[in-house]
Amino acid sequence: MPNPALNIEVLLEPVRLRRFLEQQRWFGAKARSIASVQLADVLDIGDLAWLTLIRVEFESGVDHEYLLPLAVVDATTAETLQRERPEAVVAVLDDARTLIDGVFDDGLCRALLDMLQNGKTCHSRRGTWIPDRRRQHGHVEVDRIGRTAPDQSNTSILFGERAILKLFRRVEFGPNPDVEMNAFLTRVGFPHVPRTLGMLEYSRRGESPAAVAMLQEFVPNRGNGWEVMLDSLASLENDAVAHPADRSRPSPTTAEALPALLGQRTGELHVHLARGDDESLAPEPFVGEPLVRAAEEMRHRADAHLELLASSLPRLGVATRRRATEVLDSRAALLDVFTTMAALDDAGLRIRCHGDYHLGQTLVTDADVVILDFEGEPLKPLPERRDRSSPLRDVAGMLRSFSYAATAAARSRTDDGSNAAAGTLEGWEAGASRLFLSAYFDAVGSHAVLPAQQRNTDALLRAYVVDKAIYEIGYQLNNRPDWVAIPLTGVLRWADRTSTIPGKLR
Questions:
Q1: Pairing assessment for the beta strands 34-46 and 49-58 based on DSSP bridges
Q2: Rounded distance between C-alpha atoms, residue 49 and residue 118, angstroms
Q3: Higher pLDDT, 213 or 137
Q4: How many structural domains comprise the chain?
Q5: Do the domain assignments include residue 505?
Q6: For burial by CB atoms within 10 Å, which of 118, 371, 399, 464 has the most?
Q7: Any idea what the Cα angle at residue 456 is, between residues 293 and 337, rounded to 5°?
């Protein structure tokens, strides 16, 4: 039987590769027409184990490259994967062996960790793989290996409770914002991010190096902010249903404490990020042309998504269509929010921000929170994800996340107490927003990262929340139309200039 190591390009024939890619959640171009799929590079890292780069050419637009570890496993292992993770199977080679996504092979994972920690540069046919171990943190010993649930843009491998290895599936040449931001925050002493233990870069002639993996310390936790908040809100709902007339009963600790703690840590994060001291991280005044350009981008985005909303009216339910019509009738007021933003004489600073901030980007520990995943919005090009913005962009993202948490919790209930629960959750969202903003403003204090005048801060925050909610309208119409009422409500609430912004305590 031929050795697959000698025939890896044959095994990865285009039809097979394309079929595999289209099943992966991390393949971020499912709506684009693929012209070709091919093996761009391969590195042998162990016994029947490889790191490969896959190039995807599209009928139009920019090509993509993806990191795909590969391993050959026996029939028993393959049978388990076919049953539990069928998307991990690339190809059945014969009765005894199967080619799989190497993330699900413990041997390959150990080889990858060893490669990163040993610090030995490896050369493949077309490029160079360069490990960078942070030696001051010591060597990670492997006891057991696990995997986190797959997400949109990357895959994580757990090495017991010692370390977590994030693979950046989409390979983009240039500074990776997640690696860049974590390194900076560690250097300036911000304690609420996981320490970076090492990284792996891929380099080839004519390109800046691309980060393909980052090793970080494992943070013991109760779950991410989204999971913990939904659990707490379920307790809050149950309490409201069991005691509908008792409005004096305290809500669960987490439902009250977590928004305030997140506000404090977010404010501290932004103050640290405002200390950027090199060309790519240094803050800039948010006035003049950058401010006008940002407002114009919001306006253009609003135009596009409102047009999509108008064309989608016939397929919406009666109640949602009524709410959508209210939004469309408010178009002039919505766009005026961005006009007001562009005319501000002081909008604080533009800094490097998180860029995709929501409850799911945090971990809740027994006593605190840790902030994760500084990659920015994965569908945006790398230069845009590294651009500076007002920190209120992150604030808007978290406020919108509270809205989704309240709605998700309400929709999980089907019993007769749902009306009482819904009222409780609506009140929770307003209270959570107030607690978050109050703690955020306290943490920022008089730092110039925000405008000096409260009215400017209010106008800027209103613009960012409206922009985020309008973006969500387009996203939900394309992906989850039955959720579009959530951003529609948010747009109407925040675009109303007579409404009070919660947390005006600065």
A1: antiparallel
A2: 18
A3: 213
A4: 3
A5: no
A6: 399
A7: 55
